[in-house]
Amino acid sequence: MSALTEAPPAADLPVRKASVRKRLVPYWLLVPGLLWLVVFFALPMVYQASTSVQTGSLEKGFQVTWHFQTYWDAFKEYYPQFVRSLLYAGTATLLCLLLGYPLAYLIAFKAGRWRNVILVLVIAPFFTSFLIRTLAWKTILADGGPVVHALNSLHVLDVTSWLGFTEGDRVLATPMAVVCGLTYNFLPFMILPLYTSLERIDPRLHEAAGDLYATPATTFRKVTFPLSMPGVVSGTLLTFIPASGDYVNAELLGSTDQKMVGNVIQSQFLRVLDYPTAAALSFILMAIVLVMVTVYIRRAGTEDLV
Amino acid sequence: MRWLRRNVIVIAGLATLAYLILPNVVVMVFSFNKPNGRFNYSWQRFSTDAWKDPCGVADMCGSLSLSLQIATWATLGATVLGTMIAFALVRYRFRARGAINSLIFLPMAMPEVVMAASLLTLFLNLGAQLGFWTILIAHIMFCLSFVVTAVKARVMSMDPRLEEAARDLYAGPVQTFVRVTLPIAAPGIVAGALLAFALSFDDFIITNFNAGSTVTFPMFVWGSAQRGTPVQINVIGTAMFVIAVVVVVAGQLVANRRSNSAKA
After folding, report:
1. Residue B107, domain member (yes or no)
2. A57 phi, psi to nearest 5 deg
3. Domain of B16, in residue numbers
4. ipTM of the shown complex
5. Does residue B162 belong to any structural domain of this protein?
6. Mutation for A interface: B60, B118, B119, most A CBs within 10 A
7. How far is it, in rounded angstroms, from Cα B154 to Cα A222?
8. Which site from A156, A158, B64, B230 is most exposed, i.e. has the minimal number of CB atoms within 10 Å?
9. Cα A286 to Cα B208: distance, rounded to the nearest angstrom
């Protein structure tokens, strides 16, 4: 790295000119891309902040009036959707971890020559548009379909509807369907980072733990799981962040009782055209997610994640 | 019982795999369905009608070609800009590195709906005409960070002495870059580009906010979920799946053969 930035001795003018040009190289490389991010990512945040404190109407136009009341009103009206979003996204993240860990472990340590085949199968769902795949869940969970029938005859639905996850003998248009869709959609984002960090573990550590009379369960608890923490952290982030803002699963698999905050932002922006409320909601969501993510990364102790 | 206990991880892993694959199977099977109503949600009878006439639905293939165009241009833009940033980050020292890193990291740590909504407020305030260009701008924006991450990982693991060796053998800076640096960084750049293409082609949330009345393929699918889902959607989904799997498997075989011949 240093060889390229070391300025050569500035003996005469041409050399110094060349060295100035050389020192500018990193900036030429950085500027176009960063400018793109500043103008189309950072600047929009400023515009959104200003929109959120405007008042007015679509016909008369909106003016900045520093009307912070919008934030309070928006939160008061839509806090059920906020709570629901965090609850659904949290549940989906937990389920992704529980379902994804065995598969990542299988690929990393037990698959042998099947490893690449299973990896392709994990990535393969991406090759079909996620909206089409989410619609397929409508077929899978359809009323009176084989899945609902099986769950019904095993009395699973009795338990879940007692818990409030489903209603009667329906799965579609219930919280369970939405969480199931969210879990499904973000599962590969959990599996891949888990696999990468599990794959780096030296298998001899397992043997060593066994030689020291650790049971398989102890080996997992004391050796494997701690070493896979980076994967757990980035996997949960990659799952929770998109899930918290998602509105596709709630719209396609849920009913009006399962609307998440993403649905509210979408309809306020694109149908109701109440821009200040929509911008305020979007800002609150961003703040909640950023705070949760920062606290989580601090707690998990992997700050060199980026 | 002991067998079950010893293989519990394998069984759980395979169950998860089945959960992941099941919707793709359903999409494939239902591409051969002949539904009674407008919605293709329940099995009626076998038919290959949709496969014989994949573009038989109004506007669908148009939206598909629009999505492919946008994905191609967005991939190109994001890959060029992202590769430049990645090289600068790894190879040079400069001020405000922390701020630059967080500017690149934040788009990946932000719920898509927030980015989509804020970008829309920018376009509304500027009075921009929503359509092809606003979609392309948005797609380059959110693909950029992913390309930077992919390329950076590769460039970081590169041995700088290879370039020094090229210089020592009297290669000019351009020649060194084209014949040494670029070929070594290529896998990272290709990975970034593929990721960008997949992200752009499949994006719905950001596109939905910034497309105006322009309809990309994901937006067509979204709209059809309200109006009625034609079987052709499943045909396109299945075809995409098959093509991609064939490409991946072929690429793997070529890579294997190459590494085998390198060993020999």
Report:
1. yes
2. -135, 165
3. 2-32
4. 0.89
5. yes
6. B118
7. 32
8. A158
9. 19
A245/B137 touch (CB, cutoff 8 Å), yes or no = no
Cα B103 → chain centroid: 21
Same domain assignment for residues B72 and B145 = yes
Number of domains in chain B: 2
Q: With a cut of 70, say whether residue B156 has pLDDT above it.
A: yes
Q: Is the CB of residue B83 less than 8 Å from the CB of residue B191?
A: no
Q: From the candidates A105, A127, A248, which should be mutated to test the interface with B, based on the most B CB atoms within 10 A?
A: A127
**B77 and B197 share one domain:** yes
* Inter-chain residue contact A1 with B160, CB threshold 8 Å: yes
| A45 with B124: Cβ contact below 8 A | no
pLDDT over 80 at B213, yes or no: yes
* Contact residues, chain A, for B17 at CB < 8 Å: 103, 118, 121-122
Pairwise CB contact (< 8 Å): B233 & A102: no
Which of B17, B81, B121 to probe the A interface (max A CBs under 10 A)? B121
* Residue range B241-254, pLDDT digits in tens: 998 888 888 887 88
Query: What's the CATH fold of domain A70-305?
Result: MetI-like fold (1.10.3720)
Closest-CA distance of chain A to residue B195, Å: 11
- The CATH number of the domain where B193 resides is what? 1.10.3720.10
Tracing tokens 């998602």 back to the chain, one arrives at A246
Annotated domain spans of chain A: 2-52, 70-305
Whether residue B13 is found in the same domain as residue B125: no
State pTM to two decimals: 0.89
* B141 occurs within a structural domain: yes
Residue with tokens 């608890």: A221
Do both B196 and B91 map to the same domain?
A: yes
Smallest Cα distance from A275 to chain B, Å? 8
> How many Cβ contacts (< 8 angstroms) between chains A and B?
261
- pLDDT one-digit tens code per residue, A237-252: 999 999 999 999 999 9
| B190 and B88 share one domain | yes
Report CB contact under 8 Å: B113, A1. Answer: no
Check residue A302 and give its pLDDT: 55
